[in-house]
Write a structure and sequence with these properties.
The chain is an alpha+beta fold. It contains 16 helices and eleven strands. 38% of the residues lie in helices and 14% in strands.
């Protein structure tokens, strides 16, 4: 099976029809019934597939300049043109057969001390060995997936290699670390979404210290793996920048069999895969910045990829959409979209919340971004948006702090319960204020375009946050059921919450409202 020539990518057209396509068919029937989105059986497969398609275009079709980029944005290439562009790298995209295989170790089958693993272990959320040993696979059971078709295998392999979590002794983590968040600019259809996230050639090449020309510098499976025994690392000086999209931290080779049956993931009826070879000490990446991932600086000033640990929402605007004073920066593709002065954007953010080897949750969400073409006004707009988000963050803190005072736990069990209640309160606050936030920033943009100072928006936002915080406090502190709670304690906490909500720090220092 060749992943360039053959159909393996599930998609949905504008008409609602679902089908399986080859990569070069993304522009098929672009006028009559365009492909609008990916339609894999798992959300993490969709996240992996969009990165595959972006990486493939970035590797083979990087535009020379903005005019070239806009040309394909406005008039996409035909499927035939794309097929011709992809053909020179097709040899690197064989999933099976003799010779190099897509994202699989070239020599592992001939080496000693290799192990055989069930195909289910390709899935990041599959229960690990320790979980199975302790019989703790309560929510995600063992042996759910015994057989997998080649299409699902390719998607699972791709998702694992680009998101690889910590995997035990010698099993290397992904190029961005475990559980990285990816931010993708969304277009009106799948082609636009892919092309919106392709950087200009010089922009992309700047992400490596040197341009290596061997095929294995782009596709590491084309030669013997650059293993990491004795802790050898691979940096951006050692490989072509394209390897950012084709990283291979895990040494894996699928065991191809001819058994026909039904895939446990997609119900495909045909040739299946049951097991794969695996061995530690794959490629250990260090110092790479991925174009789809926002970054931050740790306390030592080292730039790291942002990881995903909670539901995505407008609280992530700072760092995902605009820079912060603390050194957080949006992904390269987001900054590039702003430089191209695109219209209003939508950003699709997604990723696994990983606790070392354990996948806790898959999170994804879409953030609309109202853009201003004038650079000076865009900076002013960004400063006021920052005020609104920091105000919401402060109010969510006041709310959880006030609930803690109202409930005043007296023992460890109640402390744990109330800590969860406070976390839920903050999560609920962010979720319930999200729609209003996007309404307010649209109003704010209009004010900035009209050379006003956004005061009415900041005042409206303060009033809304105050009402929402008091509403949630009343609900969770059971203040309406006075006979069931310590009325004096709840009353004092309510008064203190009000003082904080109308205090100088929130109104004047954060929102810049008049006294």
């Amino acid at each position: 099976m060749n992943l360039i020539h053959e159909p393996w990518i599930p998609v949905r057209r504008k008409s609602g029809a679902k089908e399986i396509i080859a990569p070069w068919q993304v522009t098929d029937m672009y006028i009559e019934d365009p492909i609008v989105e990916l339609a894999a059986v798992r959300s993490d497969f969709n996240g992996a597939l969009i990165q595959f398609l972006i990486g493939l275009l970035q590797t083979t079709c990087a535009p020379q300049g903005n005019s070239n980029w806009r040309k394909w944005m406005n008039t996409p290439p035909s499927p035939g043109e794309l097929k011709a562009k992809f053909e020179p790298v097709a040899v690197a995209f064989n999933l099976d057969g003799a010779g190099p295989r897509f994202m699989q170790d070239l020599t592992i089958e001939d080496e000693a001390k290799k192990k055989i693993a069930e195909v289910e272990k390709l899935l990041i959320d599959a229960p690990g060995g320790q979980t199975l040993k302790q019989n703790k696979d309560l929510f995600i059971k063992r042996d759910r997936i015994r057989w997998m078709c080649p299409t699902c295998c390719a998607q699972a392999l791709l998702a694992l290699q680009i998101n690889a979590p910590v995997g035990g002794a010698g099993h290397r983590v992904g190029l961005r670390g475990g559980g990285p968040v990816s931010t993708v600019v969304l277009g009106d259809n799948l082609w636009q979404t892919i092309w919106c996230n392709v950087l200009l050639e010089n922009e992309f090449n700047d992400m490596a210290a040197a341009i290596k020309l061997d095929s294995s510098d782009k596709f590491p499976w084309m030669a013997k793996t650059r293993t990491s025994e004795k802790d050898r690392i691979t940096t951006n000086q050692d490989v072509h920048p394209a390897q950012i999209y084709w990283s291979m931290p895990r040494r894996i080779k699928l065991i191809t069999i001819s058994k026909a049956g039904r895939c446990d993931l997609c119900n495909y009826n045909g040739v299946l895969v049951k097991e794969y070879y695996t061995k530690p000490y794959g490629i250990k990446y260090d110092g790479f910045i991925h174009p789809l991932t926002p970054t931050y600086k740790n306390k030592d000033g080292i730039i790291l990829a942002v990881r995903q640990h909670e539901m995505l929402g407008y609280k992530h605007w700072l760092g995902y959409v605009q820079n912060t004073d603390g050194g957080s920066e949006p992904a390269r593709v987001i900054n590039s979209a702003f430089k191209r002065q695109m219209d209003d954007l939508r950003i699709w953010a997604f990723g696994y919340d990983m606790d070392k080897m354990k996948a806790c949750c898959w999170y994804e969400g879409v953030m609309p971004v109202a853009f201003i073409e004038d650079e000076r006004k865009w900076k002013t707009y960004g400063a006021y948006v920052t005020m609104l988000i920091r105000a919401a963050d402060m109010v969510s803190y006041f709310l959880s702090y006030g609930l803690g005072d109202a409930l005043n736990p007296k023992n460890r069990k109640s402390k744990d319960y109330n800590q969860k209640l406070k976390e839920n309160a903050r999560g609920r606050f962010w979720q319930e204020t999200e729609a209003e936030f996007y309404k307010q920033i649209r109003d704010l943009r209009q004010e900035i375009l009209e050379d006003r100072d956004g005061l009415s928006v900041r005042q409206a936002w303060h009033g809304y946050l105050t009402r929402k915080a008091q509403e949630i406090f009343n609900d969770l502190s059971q203040a309406d059921m006075i006979e069931m709670v310590d009325a004096e304690r709840v009353s004092k906490a309510w008064n203190d919450l009000g003082k904080n909500l109308y205090g100088r720090k929130l109104k004047i220092e954060i929102l810049g409202l008049p006294k």
